[in-house]
Amino acid sequence: MIKPAQPRRSVLLALAWYDYRAHIGASRYALEHGWHLDATMAQSNEFAHGWQGDGILCKLGCTKLHPDYLNFVQDLGLPAVDLSVFGQDIGLPSLEFDPFDIAFKARDHFFERGLHHFAFFPDDNNPPIRIRKDAFVKTLAKEDHDVHLIPPFLNQDNEKAWQQTAQDLGEHLQKLPRPLGVLCFSDEWGLKVLEACQRVGLNVPEDVAVLGINNNTLVCESLSTPLSSVMLDMEAWAYEACRMLDLAMDGKELPAGLTPFPTAGVVTRRSTDVVATDHPEVAKAVAFIAANYHKPIGVDDVVEATRMTRPGLKRAFSKNLRRSIREEIQRVRLRHIKRLLIETDYTLDTIATEVGLAGARQLHQTFNRVETLTPRQYRLQHRNDEKISRA
Question: What whole-number distance in Å separates Cα of residue 170 and Cα of residue 345?
Answer without folding.
Answer: 41
